[in-house]
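[SOLVED] Need 3D model of a three-part complex

Original post:
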Amino acid sequence: MTAAAISVATLQPDSAGPMLSVGNLRAYFRTDHFGVHRTVRAVDGISFDVRRGEIYGLAGESSSGKTTLVKTIAGAIKPPLEVVGGTAEFTFLPGYDGLHRAPAAELARIRWRHLSYIMQGSMNVLNPVRRLRHSFVDFARPHMAGTETEFEQAVIDHLARVNLDASVLTAYPHELSGGMRQRVTIALATICRPDFIIADEPTTALDVIVQKDVLGMIRGIQREIGSSVLFVTHDMGVHAYLTDRLGIMYAGRLIEEATTAEIFRAPLHPYTRHLIASLPRIGDDAQRKGLEGAPPNLADPPPGCRFHPRCPLAMEVCSRSVPAMIETAPGRRVACFAVNGTKQP
Amino acid sequence: MSALLDVQHVCKTFTRGGVFPSRRIHAVNDVSFRIEAEKPEIFTIIGESGSGKTTLARMILNIEPPTSGALLFDGIDLATVQSSADRMAFMHKVQPIFQNPFEAFNPLKRLDRYLFITRRRFLAAGDDADIDIAVDDALRRVGLSLKEVRHRYPHELSGGQLQRVAIARALLSNPRLIVADEPVSMVDASLRMSIVNLFKTLRDDLGISIVYVTHDLATAYYISDRIIVMQKGNVVESGEARAVLNAPQHPYSRQLRAAVLLPEVAAAAAPATTSS
Amino acid sequence: MLGILRDLLRYNAEFRIGTVLVGFVLLLSVLSGFSPYPPQDVYVVPPDVPPSPAYWFGTTSRGQDVFWQLTFAIRNTLLFGCTVALISRILALVIGLVSGYKGGWIDRVLMSINDTFIVIPLLPILVLFYFVMRDSMSWLMLALIMACLGWAYDARLIRSVAMSLKNREFTQSSVFSGMSTREILVQEHLPYVMPIVFSTTMNNMIWSIGLEVTLAVLGFTDINTPTIGGMIYWANQHTAMVAGVWWWIAFPTIAVVMTFIGLFLLAVSMNEYIDPRSRLSRMGRVTS
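Solution:
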């Protein structure tokens, strides 16, 4: 019995449009009590699409807002975080403008079967006092029809895809290494063949050798299932290795978007250019420099373009207006006055 | 040539299980190397988690005693450093930089406090004006200034800035050796190079030797003079940094080198882009 | 600070109620300064008068005004609780911080002593002390003895916080900045430990007051200084319940119950405020 024999009822998404469509999403942390009055504009007007079957990378450093963006898209919003405006809509859940507005019943329907979420520190997501088999039963069984034996066989087959033995099912999480636990989490997230996978820094805590293996597995499974993946990490090397398209975030805004190859070959936005130029490479003795200054405080960001205090190409207009994301070439967008001039979108 | 730091056959074993130890973990197994006093260098220890590199760094800093073997700093065996006067004399010369810049300082306290205390405790007393100048000097060396840092709390600065304040603090005692345990792994990539470049400046301008512990081969390649690669407590390869990283000999070093993800898209591996 | 208090009062029902209760009890104890009758005197008013406009809480069989007696009683009881709490906090802090930071044999020795004190049965020991010391057992003496018995639980709590703080990197930064152990404990670690100390203070007060009332009701303390327990003791001596003088027992009991509930609610709400996550989730419920 193979996994294919298990029927997983899927809602056939509309085959023309993108899997995920984010439109001018804004999400702020509002604190108004206990002596603290502050609004942190963590996600401030972000729009992008993730197409069917592609791996879309989101790059950004600390305080870029990428984790908040991902949480908002996944609907994991708790006060003081609130969505102030915009949409983040999946094709398989139309009509609600985003998961944060959908009722619990709809969320239960799509979770794991259409959307799965590999979180940061995933290896700690497994229940430490239960054997791994129980995690699979708890998470995946409700979404998969078929008998117990068929389910068990499907799980074993799926684990084999991430190079894990069936014996893993009888182990406790602490008996496995970090890399193995991460592979289990990936298996869990993909066993129901979801349409969309959100991965938030899944390999950050892993050793370099294990990381490469795990990334290869993610790519392999993704190709086989045909899911779309939103892959978030600050590590540019990982993006270069894995993603198809790449969006660069800075201080709560998306500033550049293109295919990964293009971004690394010819970055346009000053921040991206500086970022890529500053990455050291083995075998390359060239002197490299870090960026001046520090990322802005999102509670009190600079007016206009948020990068302008550190930008070598800053002009007068940059401190007054926010540059819009303009398509400079098919599939390439940049938000920068120096690059686009004063073109309007 | 006298040795600044002489690590001699150092081993560290952790036993688990209380009175009747059930498991022995050999965190560090027979590691030896020397850093000469006359020639300041950046000596890198490369390893993954569980390789023992952090344990080794802690032993060099005299935070943990070795199970066997000896560590000599400037000819003095660290095992003999007992009294508080001895320890102060040691810390005067050897200072640490830790991995997490957000944890390097007490979140509830102001940053400048640590700088002033370090200066006061380790160097000859001066009046407040002298101390201010010394602290400002150290901060300028790392690219900041006392004006920017005075009265600030850690949460008001970025990771890169905090790490630089930590380096300034370490500099205030005029050390001969700085032990940096993963100093840039938690710092943003765009800010990393300014700190890594700073280490080079410390070696070249101030003559401070640096023990740089990391898992990141790229930055190691960029600044190291000599390098040792550790795996599960053992040194598997050592030598001149560029030579080892460009052409590693040991299978584990080769594996490490091959696993490094380059920040460029290799044509062969570029996956076919799907059209929508 | 004021903003925080105002928000706590507004959004946290437990804090509101706790503040009202404790405020009322404090008011009573302050009023003791205005009492027209010295607390030790007896037969100053007609005995056994039920609560009435002239005597708000009635009078006792010993000819004392229950209301004014109560103000003294609650004042002394609160003072007692505060003294025990203060002394035992200091002991718990010193032992907990040193033990947690130093580790090794110092830790083992101190914790063995600590565990011995936890295990000691309190009531028999206190009764024993009373029988040995008899008349020289003033309430200050009793407070000291109870403080010496009441630090053990919290010392362990503080020790575990100290142990986790020792492993944080800023402790090493402080060491390498040349700070001495005493400086590190007081300047770096104490601010982390204070919130716990604060909330355990309330628990400690409840515990010590409860124990004192128990002892006093049984007659094992200095019964001439008016305390809540003392009032109940005298009421029992005069078989107040049987005689129908219910107000002699009721009002002290209500007062001490109000104190307990008030302190407990304050402790609970302060605990919730101190933990940032629960503070945020309560705020979230308010705004959403």
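Edit: The first helix of chain A runs from residue 66 to 74.
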